[in-house]
């Protein structure tokens, strides 16, 4: 008996170790595959940022080359030109291109004309590396912190050749790096561009500016103070950085490098590796669960065969042995039923959590507009209160009363907005019942109104008398908020932005949400989980909004579908059952 127990314990231990080894291998393989996808996406993001940076800088480089041979500047260099005309020419070019400054200097470095200054004694550009290179007949480039304007700047110096093909002067274009960064600051993964000395000069994360890397070091260090915690290691062919550099940088990121010889810089991207780890953990957990289930079934089969063999061998103990086997089987079945019930409960909770996360994600997208909607009444209340106080001091109680009335109106408006937010954000655990579909759509329109106004999107919707449907108020509200937000996202690049909501009551309740966007590329896949048409690497979503909406409408016994309109744009149709007292009594 003891030997059999030890034998079974050894088999169980070996099985668990094997499952753990397989799950670990799956995790490592899945993590590597996910890192490969992240690496490709990160390379694309870094290449896009680098192309955008070089394209913007090349525009100023071409400006320097093309304007250096302008007759007005050549005449000024030869001593027969008008400095006022030259300054006007440079100022016009600077204003049109948003250049920080345009400076024209003679071969000694003396400034002959400047776009941003009438004072030609502002200094000399001689002895600077970019100007020295221009004097040799080549295009000079350099970057540094501009002392005159106290900002990071790129310098492009192009020579001006006289009729004897000798350098008569040079045009220096000063580029404000802040202007170059402003269009992509905070976008995508963290991207830094460092010079050959290892100093970060350009980045879409301002907190990393002027961090540096000594030769032979890995990672970056701040210009002042102690370096924060940092660890670099490799997973296969990929370099992983484990760091604590601030709230807007990942704690564990995939490090990607791209050399940029055109601007003599090194581009680096730090892509958040957390999604890859989560995906690998899900894959490993799924494999381990399947292996455990298979092992459990194999163990049950082996146990049943052992009981039957003992019953056949011992005829006198057959009844007792079979009773024991049936008892064990019943216990196993009860455990399996219990486990399945627990699994169903966990799945239901996960679905509810996913729905709640979708609502909170929608609220996050609308937070700026909602803050604006609340800030306006607050400022109005403050103004009316101050005015009312002054009217009371003057004894004008009538005007003070009017101001108090307006304060009450503003407070009522804020209470309505907050009530809608609380109703939308709460977890709905009540069963399906009677829902006023008109009120639900009104609430969704009001919740998304701030964002639509901010993005210049018009919305047409006519409410009316209550129309009662079978469903859940909060979950139905999330469906229409998702549809309106998706329509606004789809029209982000459209010239005309219009959303129309219409309702039909016969033969079944039917609500249509139509937009004037580009339409749907793959209507058959639009409700698939994680399917999205947003840009690769975008932080706007993971493609779960329509999938959540599909599940919610299905849970009400309804239908939802998406299609393209003949006149352009997309239309999403939601069909619901009409509420009746019979259905409420049955529920």
Element layout with pairings:
Layout: H1 2-68, H2 71-77, H3 83-97, E1 101-105, E2 111-114, H4 129-135, E3 140-146, E4 151-161, E5 167-176, H5 177-181, E6 190-194, E7 200-203, E8 230-235, E9 238-243, E10 252-260, E11 265-272, H6 274-313, H7 318-365, H8 367-393, H9 397-425, E12 433-436, H10 437-454, E13 458-461, E14 468-471, H11 473-490, E15 498-504, E16 509-515, H12 545-555, E17 559-564, E18 570-576, H13 581-586
Parallel strand pairs: 13-15
Antiparallel strand pairs: 1-2, 1-5, 3-4, 4-5, 6-7, 6-11, 8-9, 9-10, 10-11, 12-14, 15-16, 16-18, 17-18
Helix pairs in contact: 1-6, 6-7, 7-11, 8-9, 8-10, 10-11, 11-12
**What is the approximate shape?**
extended
| Fourth-tier CATH superfamily name of the domain at 432-586 | Histidine kinase-like ATPase, C-terminal domain
Q: What do we call the CATH topology of the domain at 432-586? A: Heat Shock Protein 90
- Mean pLDDT across the residues is 80
- Adjacency order of strands in the biggest sheet: 7-6-11-10-9-8
- Biggest sheet overview: 6 strands, antiparallel
Unreliable spans are 536-542
In percent terms, what proportion of residues is strand?
15-25%
Distance between the termini: 56 Å
Description:
This protein is about 50% helix and about 20% strand. The chain is α+β, with helices and mostly antiparallel strands and about 575 residues long. Among the domains are: about 70-180, Beta-Lactamase, CATH 3.30.450; about 365-425; about 430-585, Histidine kinase-like ATPase, C-terminal domain (Heat Shock Protein 90, 2-Layer Sandwich). The strands form four sheets. Strands 7-6-11-10-9-8 form a six-stranded antiparallel beta sheet. It has a five-stranded antiparallel beta sheet with strand order 2-1-5-4-3, sandwiched between helices. Helix 6 (about 275-315) runs antiparallel to helix 7 and helix 11 (about 475-490) runs antiparallel to helix 12 (about 545-555). The two termini are about 55 Å apart. About 30% of the residues are buried.
